Structures are given as C-alpha cells and as structure tokens.
C-alpha cells in the first residue's frame, strides 16, 4: 500500500507541478489559446489563474517534501485534501461549462488525491 501511495503521490506531484508552473508563467490569453480544455480560464481573472497555479505548485511540493524531509509530514495528507477541494471546484466549473468529458478527468484527479489523503491519514500514516 505504501508503494502505491508513493507512486500516486509522485504522479500527482509531477502533474500539478507542471500544470501549476504553466499557469504561473503563461499569460491567461496564451493558456486559453492552447486548446479547448483550457477555455475555463475565460471564467477567471488573470490573477485568479495565477493563484490557481500557485496553489497547484504548493500542493505538489506539499505532497512530497514533508515526507521526504521528515518535517511536518502531516502536510502530505493536508496537501492532498487541498487538491480534493481544488478538483471539486474544477469539476463544478466544467459542469457549468457543459464539459462532461473533461469533468471526468478532473474527477479522476480528485479520486487520486482522495486516495492519498485517505492513505496518509489512515493505514499508511507518517505519524505512527
């Protein structure tokens, strides 16, 4: 179970580090022009998109570093819970935009983050 949690955590961290970094360095207009899956940015201000990117990068760091450095490992499941909340908002945004297929991707990320939160709060906690 611990290995599965580490694999999922690593994949989530990589995805959110790349995605969040992209949102931080690219202007909102370029993100919107990058494809149909990125049109959600039209519903947010440029500062809002940057804030989402910053939260994603912070979550990616929070998923991995506390456990690796053994400094405040409780931050790992808390970061995962933060991603659950973020992906809930993403799924709601997709539902409002009638983007059902893309919403399913958001729900898959939500499920993976929930798995990490459950595993790190419960059976494979770093606190025991």
From TrEMBL:
The chain crosses the membrane at residues 6-26, 47-68, 74-92, 104-121. Pfam families: DoxX_2. It is found in: Membrane. Its main location: membrane. The keyword Transmembrane helix applies. It is a multi-pass membrane protein. One of its GO terms (cellular component) is membrane. This is Putative membrane protein YphA (DoxX/SURF4 family). The lineage of its organism: Bacteria, Bacillati, Actinomycetota, Actinomycetes, Micromonosporales.
């Amino acid at each position: 179970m611990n290995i599965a949690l580490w694999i999922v955590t690593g994949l989530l961290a990589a995805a959110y580090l790349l995605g969040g970094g992209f949102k931080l360095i690219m202007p909102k207009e370029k993100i919107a022009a990058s494809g149909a899956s990125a049109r959600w940015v039209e519903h947010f201000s440029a500062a809002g998109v940057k804030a989402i990117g910053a939260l994603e990068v912070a979550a990616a760091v929070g998923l991995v570093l506390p456990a690796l450095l053994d400094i405040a490992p409780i931050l790992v499941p808390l970061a995962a819970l933060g991603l659950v909340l973020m992906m809930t908002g993403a799924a709601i945004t997709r539902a409002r935009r009638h983007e059902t297929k893309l919403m399913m991707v958001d729900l898959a990320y939500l499920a993976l983050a929930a798995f990490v939160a459950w595993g790190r709060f419960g059976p494979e906690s770093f606190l025991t």
